[in-house]
Design brief:
By secondary structure, the protein is of the alpha+beta class. The protein starts with 15 loop residues before the first strand and ends in a 26-residue tail after the last strand.
Length: 396
């Protein structure tokens, strides 16, 4: 999952104020409902010492509707100087919460990133296409729409005697040329900043021509869906449900792909570790490609266990003595394990994947898929290197 939008939080001046708000606005309540929820949170933040200027800035953001209907959440993170992150979420939290302290509450933000799917919807007809770039899930905002019009306008078949075959050939040639222009623009967008999905819809013949003209990279992202189009008569609500379903299926596949890679690496005894001590070690070394967290552990032992951390995100340890051993002066700070691990993952551009219902074999509720490993990397296949002495695996 892409966490680039959280990078600005690293190195920012403390304290941090994190607001995780149910921003759903009932029609009967107008704008007052979300604002009232914020006012209750503000009172608790004032008691915890949050600055009035920061709270005023958050209040201004909350007062402005996000432009979406239906249930929604919002996460806002401010440092000592002001708001750094403001994201709309597709699902509201069960309870609105606010935290003021030395570090941002990163887990709600990470969970929101797990929802996010970047979709390019291509609604094609025989003259061109509408290209809509939108975000499904968290971070959803205003869609960006571009129109691609083909240069070939002989798109209608004639039924007049001997001209029929010739006219049909010219029309189909125009359809194909127009589709090639659409496909070229889709390919360019994929090259410039690949979406997670390219969802193709519209006129049946035009869809076929566009599909056949797409390059390899775009075809690898392609999902087709009926019900969309450029003209009148499209059931927008029904088609949006199909877009949401495609995004949900992509989320599941994205998570499953990481967990499958993790399980395979575990089975080989290479490029994957589990247990808190081993994960801390590889995080400190910058080896982690993907941090894997058991969802149940996030409200259990990872939320209850404390780690010592230094100024840098990769400086973390299980004790103050261990922190001193890696060269950190002073006692450092103490964070709960979930926050310290996520902070270290963010500090090395690693992703974070959540495992539900025993989907991954995790000791202490945590594991890591590695970018690289060497002889000194903790390994469950080597007793002297693994912190998980009770669950060593035999690797063939």
């Amino acid at each position: 999952m892409d966490l680039h939008w959280l990078k600005p939080l690293l190195g920012r001046p403390a304290p941090f104020t994190t607001v995780f708000l149910d921003a759903t606005r009932a029609e009967s309540a107008g704008e007052a409902e979300a604002v009232d929820r914020w006012r209750a949170l503000r009172r608790s933040l004032e008691r915890d010492g949050a600055s009035a200027s920061v709270l005023d800035e958050i209040a201004e953001l909350v007062a402005v509707p996000a432009g979406r209907r239906g249930p929604q959440g919002r996460i806002i993170v401010a440092d000592a100087d002001g708001v750094v992150v403001d994201r709309v979420l597709s699902e509201p939290p069960t309870h609105s919460v606010a935290v003021h302290g030395p570090i941002p509450a990163l887990l709600p933000a990470i969970r929101s990133a797990d929802e996010e799917v970047d979709v390019l919807v291509v609604a094609a007809d025989r003259t061109g296409a509408d290209l809509t770039r939108k975000t499904c899930g968290a971070g959803a905002g205003q869609a960006q729409v571009e129109h691609v019009e083909g240069g070939h306008d002989d798109v209608h078949k004639s039924r007049e005697g001997g001209l029929e075959r010739r006219s049909q050939t010219r029309a189909e040639d125009s359809w194909q040329r127009n589709a090639e222009l659409v496909a070229a623009e889709v390919d360019r967008k994929v090259r410039d900043g690949a979406p997670d999905l390219v969802l193709l819809t519209g006129d049946t013949r035009a869809v076929g021509f566009v599909r056949d003209a797409l390059g390899k990279d775009a075809r690898g992202l392609l999902v087709e869906a009926s019900g969309g189009g450029r003209g009148d008569g499209v059931n927008v609500a029904a088609f949006e449900e199909k877009v949401a379903d495609a995004a949900a299926q992509f989320r599941g596949k994205r998570r499953a792909a990481v967990l499958d890679r993790f399980a395979t690496a575990q089975g080989r005894g290479d490029n994957a570790v589990t247990s808190l001590d081993d994960v801390i070690e590889v995080l400190r070394r910058g080896q982690v490609a993907e941090l894997v967290l058991d969802v149940d552990a996030l409200s259990g032992n990872l939320a209850e266990r404390e780690l010592w951390v230094g100024p840098g995100p990769l400086e973390l340890a299980t004790s103050s003595a261990d922190l001193a051993a890696i060269g950190v002066d002073g006692d450092g700070d103490r964070y709960t394990a979930d926050v310290a691990l996520v902070r270290a993952a963010l500090g090395q551009d690693a992703g974070v994947t959540f495992a539900d219902d025993g989907a991954a074999d995790l000791v202490d509720g945590v594991g890591a898929l590695l970018r690289w490993s060497d002889e000194s990397t903790p390994s469950e296949a080597v007793p002297s290197q693994s912190a998980d002495q009770a669950r060593l695996r035999t690797v063939v």
